[in-house]
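Ex. 9. Protein: Tetratricopeptide repeat protein.
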Amino acid sequence: MLFDAKRLAAVSLLALLAACQTVSAPSVITLDKAQGSSENISSLTATVNADPRNPESYNVRGTAYGRAGQNKDAIADFTTAIQLNPNFYQAYANRALVYRQTGDNQAALADYNAAIRLNPNYDGAYIGRGNLYRTANRNREALADFQKAIDLNTTDPRAYHNRGLLYQRDGQHKQAIEDFSTAISLRADAPEPYSGRGVSYLALGDDENAFSDFNMALKLNDRSAEYWTNQAIVFERRGDKARAAKSYARAAQLDPNYKPAKDGLARTRGTA
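Predicted structure tokens for Tetratricopeptide repeat protein:
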């Protein structure tokens, strides 16, 4: 029975490591959700109408459209901003993010490349392009971009978080923990680095620190199936099937298609 418990814990950890790689980092558009409200967009539209030749106004409204999920309108505004100012590298990077959100990765890559050509010291474009490379499993290119942003002394936590994910994928968990910790020091209210660091702690057998990080991630965002699954895995490794099943059940409720949660729930409820 001890062998089975270890085997199941290993299976859980492998599933968790795989799932962690799909997590998206905070985006280039970092506006507050309220800035995507219809009231704010109406106000920004008034600003655009008052000065229709100002590219910055279109860029700002484009970010608001992006936050609201109005991708076509966002792309149109960023395009207008670029037409008015062909050197507007921030607008290229913002449009790249929206292209990526719509699944047009080729257009996103072209825009990130354009932003970098216009400003080789723009850390945000390297981070955005690096994340595009990372999700396409172009790990070497992704690592180079995150490293470039870090060499530029970026204060953007995404550079460290995403590099940490690459280290984690490569089994370099101590380096990953360092990067996740730096990301946390730069933005303590983001749950993703806590979750990522917890996964690496778990891989190193440090269940206590892993559990602490998973709980912090849940405190910051209790609507994530992944975070509830992370917590459940620690309960399962401790042999507390009742609590594990409860957390797996909550994860499955939030995302019925999340396989690590479904598999964990089957195990801890004795139906595997």
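Check your answer against this statement. The two ends are 15 Å apart (CA to CA).
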